[in-house]
Amino acid sequence: MTKYETVANSLADRINNHEFNETKKIPTEDQLMEEYNVSRNTVRNAIKILTKLGLLYPVQGSGMFIRESRKCDTVFLSGTRGITKDHPGNKLINKCLSVEIVEADDNLAQIMLCEIGTPIYYIERLRIVDDIPYAIEYTYYNKNIIPYLDKEIIESSIFRYIKEDLKIPFGFSDKYISARKLTDQESQLLELEKNDPAIIIEDNIYLTNGTLFNSSQIVYNYKLAHFFMTVE
User: Fold this and answer.
1) Are 213 and 205 a contacting pair, CB within 8 Å?
2) Of 42, 41, 13, 39, whose CA–CA distance to 26 is shortest?
């Protein structure tokens, strides 16, 4: 993780923990440079991240202020944060339903932009927020890039493991939103009715060099999920 990502994560945690509620703004660049012992460029890159995430907005001559219009417990569409980062302070349980290694056939190779025969992790996972089933994930990871995953990692935070333990930086993601009816199994897992609507996000995540390493289909509980993005 780069220095500016570390600073951005720390500031995001402080914002979510309401540390700056009294002033509704974060410390100045000079104060942050001294506090984190980093350069001005590092502070500015961290602030740029938080602005894109919809946590901050600038006021000319006054500093960076905390946005208050954002709903809590939302899925951020313009990034690769994941449900864990989208729900700070909530009780989050990840239940591994299935994990296996498959060889990419012609169809999967097209999805994963890899060669036929490439080893691929396939994972099914139930995300539970505050004891309520929130989403079901069907996910593929290219094993040549993510060499090891197990139940312990899957039931923790896969993204944190990839970023912090494997030191693999994310580049960008493509997201596609659609809707359909829940399958019988999905309705049972999400504790909804058969044929209830399902909100689907297909998420393809790339490395900084443009290599696809992750492709997911996430089925959200329509009663709970809210979606958010910033528009410039």
Assistant:
1) yes
2) 13
Listed as own residue / partner, the contacts of 113-117 with beta carbons closer than 8 Å and 24 or more positions apart are: 113/211, 113/212, 114/142, 114/144, 114/212
**Residues 143, 145: Cα–Cα separation, whole Å:** 5
Tokens 């417990």 belong to residue: 73
DSSP annotation of 161 reads I
Q: Is 193 helix (H, G, I), strand (E, B) or coil?
A: coil
Helix, coil or strand: residue 117: coil
Token pair 């993780």 is found at 1
**What are the residues whose beta carbons fall under 8 Å from the beta carbon of 37, sequence distance 6 or more?**
none
Q: What is the pLDDT along the chain (232 residues), one digit of tens a residue?
A: 688 888 998 998 898 888 998 899 999 999 999 999 999 999 999 999 888 877 888 988 899 999 875 555 566 665 555 666 665 567 899 999 999 999 999 999 999 999 999 999 999 999 999 999 999 999 999 999 999 999 999 999 898 899 889 989 888 889 999 999 999 999 999 999 989 999 999 999 999 889 999 999 999 999 988 877 666 5
Q: Cβ distance 126 to 189 under 8 Å?
A: yes
Number of alpha carbons in the 13 Å side-chain half-sphere of residue 220: 18
- C-alpha 133/C-alpha 169 separation (Å) is 29
**DSSP H helices in 66-205:** 83-86, 106-112, 151-154, 158-160, 184-189
Reduced to 3 states (helix: H, G, I; strand: E, B; else coil), residue 224 is: coil
Token pair of 58, please?
């600038």
